Amino acid sequence: MLPLTLVVTSVCVVIKYAVLVPIEHALGLNLGASFSSELSRNFANESMAFWAVIGIVHAFEFNRRYREREVAAADLRARLSEAQLEALRSQIHPHFLFNTLHAISTLMHRDVGAADTMLTRLSDLLRLTMQHRDQNEISLRDELALVDQYIEIMRVRFGDRLTVRHVIRPDTLDALVPQFILQPLLENAFDHGIANTAGPGTIEISALTVDGKLELSISDNGFNRNRSGQRVKKNGMGLANTRRRLEQLYGSAQSISLEKLPERGTRVVVAIPLHTSTRLSPVAASVA
Question: What's the gap between Cα 269 and its chain centre?
């Protein structure tokens, strides 16, 4: 590339003075100068001027291509992040459907009416999820509507011994949350908490704002122990997927914690950035 540049600039300088000197003579200017003398006297300076122009052009072109590569790389990272989120979300739904259909199948043998009710409410829940199938985030108000449908399914399973309390601050209802973020946490509470409790089971769903973040928590009064008396591990696939989804959406700006309550039961707490409008993904935000 460098030899070609030297040849091109040399030819340009020669052409310039081959044209310039005759024009100057025709205009009566610099009559004593000849083509060879002007060329030998100005060749170095003119060559450096051409090199400077070529260097500036190359710098602009390099910067343009660099920006194009950065934009392409950012777009690729964003697409990969979206694909990972979609993969995680697609894992949650089959897991939830398998458990629910298994419960319906079990119930069918002893209470056909209850199984039919459960199936109808599952259909209503899936219809709601389809309304937001292309959105990673929805309002907490819409998320709670999904959750209520899921709770109604669980009421059929657990009957009158189930109590669910909502402690939702009104100023949190318009905040955006990952779609279906609460369902796997509730499923964890039902399967590992309420299902292991012989007496009345209570679940509390709360939402409040703390230091510019939305804090969601789900607690249950389950014993957290299996039949052999060992502590039940409440960290199944649903909870693991929830952790990964939060990391994909919010990076280090999120947290999720699982804690045993003083007397009995467990609480899971999710904290995410408080926002009410569509946000940039961590990848896009870092490039913008």
Answer: 19
